[in-house]
Amino acid sequence: MKIVVLDGYTENPGDLSWDELGKLGELTVYDRTSLTDEEEIIQRIGNAEIVYTNKTPITKKVMDACPNMKFISLLSTGYNVVDYGYAKEKGIPVTNVPSYGTASVSQFSIALLLEICHHIGHHNASVHAGSWANCIDWCYWDYPLIELEGKTIGIIGFGRIGQAEGRIAKALGMNVLAYDLYPNDSGKMIAEYVDLDTLYARSDVITLHCNLTPENTGMINKDSIAKMKNSVILINNARGQLINEQDVADALNAGKIAAAGLDVVYTEPIKADNPLLHAKNCIITPHISWAPKESRQRIMDCAVANAKAFIQGEPINVVNK
Fold it and tell me: I need a labelling partner for 163 at 20 to 30 A (CA). Which of 43, 94, 100, 113 fits?
C-alpha cells in the first residue's frame, strides 16, 4: 500500500520515528502541505490508499480527485479538517486519535496557573538582567504572589483531562467545582458538580476543558464574565473559540479578570490584531499543551494502530461510522 503523511512536522519534528508506519507500506512523509492549495494536496496524495493529515484539509474535491484513497487518519483528536460525511458516502473510514494528551494538557493548564501565581519567567529574567544584584533588599517581587491552597477552582468540562486537572488541584489544596453535561462517579470523587452560574459565582480560578460545540462557542463572554468573582483567573487550553476574545480582553483591562493563561486562540496562528495580545496580565503560548514527546509518541502509536486495524479489515477509532 502507498501511504502519504501530508503534514508530519508538527507531530514529528525529528525526535520520533516513522519506521513503524513505514513497515505497513510505501511511505512518503511531507513536513508541510498547503492548507489552501487543493491542487498541491491532490498531487501529493496521488494514488495513495492511506492518507494521514493533521491540519491539511481533505475536501470533497480532494477525495474525488484521488479515487485510490481508501483510508484517512488524523494525527490529532479533532477531525473537522476532513469532510468526513462525504468520506462516509464514498466508503472511506476516517479515524482519529481519541486520547493521548490527558497528562500533558492537564499539567500545562496547571503550569499556566502557577505562572500567573508566581510569574517565575519574569522574575528569572529580571534576576539575569541584574535587578536582584542591584536590589537594596534581600528579595523583591514585581507582581502580587498568589497562594492556591484554600481557593476554589471551577473546571468546565470534566472528562479525562478535566478530572486529571482536578486531581492536581486537590493536591495543591484547592476546592474543586465541576460542570459537565454527563456527571459520573469518578468525577464525584474529585469535585462537587454544580451548574454553570454557581461555578462562575464561586470560583477563584476558572479553567476550560470542554469540547467545542455550537452551543458553547463564545461561552466566556461579557454576560458570563459579569457572573464571575472580581479578580477571577481564567485558563483556557481547550479551544480558542470557547471565549469571546474582545470581551475577555476588555475584562482583563478593566481588572474584572485578574489574569488569563491561554494556550489557544480563535484563529491560529494568532493574528497580529488579536485584542488579547495587548490585554493586561494575559499569558499566551502557541498551542503546545499537547506537544511533549511522550504525548506525541502516543499519537504515533495510535496512528500506526489505526492503519494496522484498517489493513486487517477491522478499523478502529472511526469517526464516521
Answer: 94
Distances (CA, A) of 70 to 36, 65, 262, 309: 22, 13, 38, 13
Average pLDDT, the chain: 98
- The pTM score is 0.94
Active site members: 239, 268, 287
> What length does the chain have?
321
Q: What is the pLDDT of residues 34-59, one digit of tens each?
A: 999 999 999 999 999 999 999 999 99
Q: Where are the domains of the chain?
A: 2-100+293-311, 102-284
Fold classification of 2-100+293-311 (topology level): Rossmann fold (3.40.50)
Q: Which three cell numbers stand for residue 214?
A: 455550537
Closest CA to 248 of 264, 263, 259, 237: 259
The fold of 102-284 is: Rossmann fold (3.40.50)
* Cis omega (within 30 of 0) for bond into 269: yes
**Where does 85-158 show beta strands of DSSP type E?**
94-95, 152-156
